[in-house]
Amino acid sequence: MTLVDMGIPAVRSELPSLHGRPETPLLVDRFGRIARDLRVSITEKCSLRCTYCMPEEGLPPIPREELLTADEIVRLVSLAVTELGVREVRFTGGEPLMRRELEQIVAGCHAAVPGTPLAMTTNGVGLEHRAAALVKAGLSRVNVSLDTVDQADFARLTRRDRLESVLNGIRAARDAGLTPVKVNAVLMRQNLAGAPDLLAWCLAEGCELRFIEEMPLDADHEWAREHMVTAADLLDVLGERFTLTPAGRVDPSAPAEKWLVDGGPATVGIIATVTRKFCDSCDRTRLTADGMLRSCLFSDQEFDVRTALRAGADDAEVAELWRGAMWQKWAGHGIDAAGFVPPERTMGAIGG
Ligand code: SAM
Ligand code: SF4
Fold first, then answer.
1. Each residue of 98-130: b (16+ CB within 10 Å) or e?
2. Which residues line ligand 2 (CB under 6 A)?
3. How many distinct structural domains can be found in the chain?
4. Cα of 339 from ligand 1 centre, angstroms
5. Residue 24 lies in a domain
6. How many CB atoms lie within 10 A of CB 230?
């Protein structure tokens, strides 16, 4: 298997250029954006095999020695908040619940940067047994991915029959106080007709549902612009059962456009990553499970902070590497540009 088959980019840089960068501790890029939102992938392992994300056999395992340790993650999160202006941290993967040290990582970060919101994006499998402990450790928000409430569709889309566990996980998160639970659904032909049922379920359970346009980050490389389901397709289908009124974006850097459902106050969000891209207001910075800094999901460049840490870099050196990595950030993802090439790492290997 080649590096590319494994979803590992060939381009890895250690020393980003800081040419032209203004004097600021913050994670500013060449287009004036400032990254405040850190996504930390903590594992490549997953309990599901969503067709738009993972290959059927899962991602090749990251060798133990290449995975950032819990202490390294806590150090980097702490540095990002205290030195670089990060204001929110989200743990993702792979599936973060697959990492046994998740509670330890959350507790370590909470102790290091108390007051900083710590969130998690999860598929919800097994969450019912851990939601209370995660809240105790300091987790403040959760997004659960759920594309359909139809059991057969769920099993087809995720290649696993775990719908019940996910639904129980969402309820347990809500009961543990992680409210409002946000539910993320990727839009596809296979779940479009079931979108109104999913919205009705979320409204009944008090969850905030957001649909996300599918991006070309699937391991099977089957995504095609002409076949993808768009936000406009979804609005047509939801409009047959609900009255939707545009409510706009409350926070301009928030990716979801909101719609009031049947006059409100309940809402549904649509994250139109492809057809109404929001790169101009992107405030994300990313750390992969094997310790690479990325400025964008679609970047072809990453910066090796794991090697720097293990070679004894001090906080000032790590911070400078991170600032340089973000200074290289592109203006946009370019999905609609002629000659667009998807990144070599797939969604599950970067952390969504
Ligand atoms: N396993 C966790 C989960 O599913 O929530 C966290 C990792 S997953 C990669 C993070 C998010 O990325 C999920 O909401 C998932 O639905 C989304 N995602 C995965 N592949 C995607 C794709 N090709 N396009 C859009 N979103 C995708
Ligand atoms: Fe696993 Fe999440 Fe990817 Fe689905 S979207 S395969 S749950 S990492």
1. bbeebbebbbbbbeebeebebbbbbbbbbbbeb
2. 46, 48-50, 53-54, 93-95, 123, 145, 347-348
3. 1
4. 24
5. no
6. 17
Using the mean position of ligand 1's atoms as its centre, give its distance from the Cα of residue 18 in Å. Answer: 32
Residue whose CA is at the smallest distance from ligand 1 atom 4: 123
Q: Is residue 16 part of a domain?
A: no
- Per the listing, tokens 């850190």 go with 38
Answer yes or no: is 270 within a domain.
yes
In this predicted model, what pLDDT tens digit does every residue of 265-292 receive, in sequence order?
999 999 988 887 778 889 999 999 999 9
Measured in Å, residue 190 CA sits from the centre of ligand 1 at 16
Q: How far apart are CA 79 and CA 327, in angstroms?
A: 18
Strand partners, 41: 92
Evaluate whether 5 touches 341 at the Cβ level (below 8 Å). no
What's the chain's average pLDDT?
90
Q: Which amino acid is at 103?
A: E
Instruction: Express each pLDDT in 287-342 by its tens digit.
Output: 999 999 999 988 878 999 999 999 999 999 999 999 999 998 988 777 766 667 77
pLDDT in tens, 81-97: 999 999 999 999 999 99
Element (H, E) at 145: strand 141-145
Give the CATH number for residue 340: 3.20.20.70
Per the domain annotation, does 29 fall within a domain?
no
